[in-house]
Amino acid sequence: MTAIDKKSRAFAGKHHDNKQKMSKGDIVFNIVNYTVFILITLACIFPFYYLFINTISDNELVRLGRIQLYPQGIHFENYVQVLKIPGILDALFVSIARTVLGTLWTVGGCAFLGYLCTKQEMWLRKVWYRLIIITMYFSAGLIPWYMNLRMLGFLDNFWVYVIPGLVSPYNVILVKTFIEALPPSLEESATLDGAGYTRVFLSVIMPLITPILATLCIFSAVGQWNSFTDTMMLMPAGKYYTLQFLLYKYQNEASSLAALVRNTQDSSSLANIATKQTALSVRMTVAMVVTLPILFVYPFFQRYFVKGIMIGAVKG
User: Fold this and answer.
1) DSSP structural state of residue 27
2) Quick check: is 299 in a domain?
3) 3-state secondary structure of 225
4) Of 56, 61, 93, 198, whose CB count within 10 A is highest?
5) 80 and 92 assigned to the same domain
6) Which distant-in-sequence residues (6+ apart) come within 8 Å of 147 by Cβ?
7) Tens digits of residue pLDDT in 151-175
8) Which domain holds residue 179?
């Protein structure tokens, strides 16, 4: 056995002993730490679980408040009937379209603008950057915002969900800070080869800022999906309703909506009180339909989130 092998084994043995020898304080800390985080995780998950088991349980038991920890009388009639509500599939399509297009436009616009704000040769760079930042703290207000969009012809126009949100000051700050942390030599080498700003951004910068782009995607997608106040104010003719706005509307009209759903059910379904639609079942089912899509999308971007939000935050 060589001297190197002996040293390697000795180091491994010491490392193993250090892992095995934990003080009582460390053990107690780990137990408390894991317990607290498990409880917090359960507290975050339980509302969604509770909502879901109530949507697939006997509607009469749900109405009486007897569903607590596990479903009873499992059925999926609530989802079948809610998806038959007039306009809900169109609203689902509008919500998906505004989320996808709005996210792409916002992320692309903020990323390129953040990149331009890092260029020292940009004309009045500091002035434009400060004007962008000022809008985070000062705005004209709700009424001027509405009047401006109305004069621009955005009422009952799908693109009102996409174009006004093209630039987000906070997102621009994140991208600018992230790019400034990259080695400038990478961009300089591409510039020496004759690449322009657009080519450098697409070929060099974008592949390097994937974590922050994923972070912006999370912010923008969740914001687009959950928004409903713009639909309330900017769609007076009822065109391009989003799923979130229908949820808001149906929460207030659940009783009449439940009656509408019951009228569309077959007589055989009406005979079964377990699947008979109630105001509570409609509220919960619509809320679940609205929540599920974004819950499925979020985990794909989660692994980029911490890295994207932290890089550039600490200078060393």
Assistant:
1) H
2) no
3) helix
4) 56
5) no
6) none
7) 888 888 889 898 888 888 888 888 8
8) 88-247
